[in-house]
Specification:
By secondary structure, the protein is α/β, with parallel strands linked by helices. The chain folds into two domains: about 300 residues, Zn peptidases (Aminopeptidase, 3-Layer(aba) Sandwich), CATH 3.40.630.10; about 130 residues, Glucose Oxidase, domain 1, CATH 3.50.30.30. Helices cover about 35% and strands about 20% of the residues. It is built from 16 helices and 13 strands. Strands 1, 2, 3, 4, 5, 6, 7, 8, 9, 10, 11, 12 and 13 form a 13-stranded mixed sheet that branches. Helix 9 links the parallel strand 9 and strand 10. The longest helix is centred in the middle third of the chain and has 20 residues. The chain is elongated. The N terminus is likely disordered. It binds zinc ion. Zinc ion (ZN) binds next to helix 9.
């Protein structure tokens, strides 16, 4: 039992005695944790199922036939674990790629070089562009300011990171660099990746999730170096970009499995992660390791017949990569039918790996809870360091819940640099997955999930509208939310 959440010391002795008597049958948290631990270590299936899904389905792009197959796969797997499963469909406008080419050479010459390239999401549906390249360095405001007289009507070439590394400079997201390019009048933008070995990266180039007016593409680190070398020899170098993309209504389905609470069934803990991926590889890391960990947490609860007090919803979100489409659709529905208040906690797993703690995401009142439950997890396995962050951020499926005042958390872990180099890239494949780390995500998160679902009291409550605004301001998120068009105050 958790002393924080089951404290009754101030009550009269008689009442304490009666409460204790009432709890005789309740399983002790540590005993449940030990069972979860053994089940996952002995029979965890996250690694095998992720291997099967990535090799039989491939990528899991929302709105594509692959995406539909992935939804069905998750649905059937959850059903095979004995859970009550349903599809929750939604229809949205979503971007997807068709074709793109990039060639570079001196203006008006036949000496053209074809450069391997991918389109960044929310680029125009059709674009044919020819123009001189202007090197805008790291693509920060100061970089664009330095070339403001040349970049207008031309094609900006920028690094995705800060090169060479400089801790004094704060990097911007690729979408923010694109927004600057648009503001400075560029007709297109070529973003140079920072990972070695010809890795290409995708993701959105739009800060709002709406289509942008100029084509945005990504090239490899090596191609960027070749172009810059060539620019030194030739006075000017021109690029030709031709692309076509789709932006159309798609139908997709979130998958929701429910485990009904034994005592407080109306209150629920929602544990979710995005099942969808980009289409350049199989998204084994982003977000195979998060979503398949959740599927195996669901299996573990099913096999062990765990019956915590609150209802648990295991949710596979689609559409995260194109702009949190699935979680936002679900939240709109929860707000509309006035059941958002029933969500007592949202646990998000997005590329969660090998957790060492749980991020309280700015809810100070939860820090003791995570620390005390964490101590019990650590007692089961000292590999869990119980180091709990307390800082919130944006850009994954917890965002919409946080904006509704729902407390959110996520396991905090880490991925090695070579794995992170494949983020959104054509190398995000199953060979990057570490089975031991994946099982750690499953067992430690299952333990924390149980503790939340079975707690007598959860210290954090849903914030009302003004308190949510104050919370977001205090967390320093107002500016970023305004840029993304998500600030409603
Ligand atoms: Zn992700």
């Amino acid at each position: 039992m958790n002393p924080i959440i089951r404290r009754a010391g101030f009550l009269g002795l008689a009442l304490v005695a009666s409460l204790l008597a009432f709890r005789v049958d309740e399983p002790d948290l540590s005993a449940v944790f030990a069972r979860i631990n053994e089940e996952v270590l002995q029979r965890g299936r996250a690694y095998q199922t992720l291997n099967e899904a990535t090799s039989t389905i491939g990528h899991r792009l929302t709105g594509s036939p692959n995406g539909t197959r992935a939804e069905q796969y998750a649905h059937d797997l959850l059903r095979s674990y004995g859970l009550d499963v349903k599809f929750v469909p939604f229809e949205v406008e979503a971007w997807s790629r068709d074709t793109v080419t990039l060639s570079v050479g001196p203006p008006k010459s036949d000496n053209l070089r074809v450069i391997p390239v991918v389109s960044l999401a929310h680029s125009p549906v059709k674009a044919t562009l020819q123009g001189d390249i202007v090197d805008a360095g790291n693509g920060l405001e100061s970089d664009f300011e330095a070339v403001k007289d040349q970049v207008k009507g031309r094609i900006a070439l920028v690094n995705i990171g800060i090169s060479p590394p400089n801790p004094a400079l704060k990097n911007l997201h690729r979408s923010e660099k694109t927004a600057l390019a648009i503001r400075y009048g560029a007709a297109g933008i070529i973003i140079v990746n920072q990972v070695k070995n010809n890795v290409l990266l995708t993701g959105t180039a739009s800060v709002t999730g709406k289509l942008i007016p100029i084509p945005a593409v990504c090239i490899s680190l090596e191609s960027g170096a070749i172009i810059r070398e060539w620019m030194k020899e030739e006075k000017t170098l021109a690029a030709r970009i031709e692309m076509s993309n789709f932006s159309r209504k798609i139908r997709a389905r979130n998958v929701v499995a429910t485990l009904r609470g034994s005592d407080l069934p109306k209150e629920k803990i929602l544990i979710g992660g995005h099942l969808d991926s980009w289409d350049l590889a199989t998204g084994a890391i982003d977000n195979g390791i998060g979503s398949f960990a959740i599927l195996d947490i669901a299996r573990t609860f099913g096999v062990l017949q765990l019956k915590p007090r609150r209802t648990i919803e295991f949710v596979m979100f689609m559409g995260e990569e194109q702009g949190l489409l699935g979680s936002e659709a679900l939240i709109r529905q929860l707000v509309k039918d006035k059941s958002i208040g029933r969500v007592r906690y949202m646990v998000n797993l997005d590329m969660a790996n090998n957790p060492v703690g749980f991020n309280a995401c700015g809810r100070e009142e939860m820090v003791p809870f995570f620390r005390e439950v964490g101590e019990k997890i650590k007692a089961v396995d000292p590999a869990f360091a119980n180091v709990n962050a307390n800082r919130s951020g944006l850009h994954s499926d917890h965002q919409g819940f946080m904006l509704e005042g729902v407390p959110v958390t996520m396991p905090s872990g880490s991925l090695s640099a070579d794995v992170l180099g494949c983020y959104h890239a054509d190398c995000d494949r199953f060979n990057l997955v570490n089975q031991e780390h994946l099982n750690n995500t499953v067992r430690f998160t299952a333990m924390m999930l149980y503790a939340l679902a079975d707690a007598d009291q959860i210290p954090a409550r849903k914030l009302d509208n003004p308190a949510t605004r104050d919370f977001l301001v205090k967390q320093g998120l107002q500016n970023e939310l305004e840029i993304g068009g998500d600030w409603r105050w």
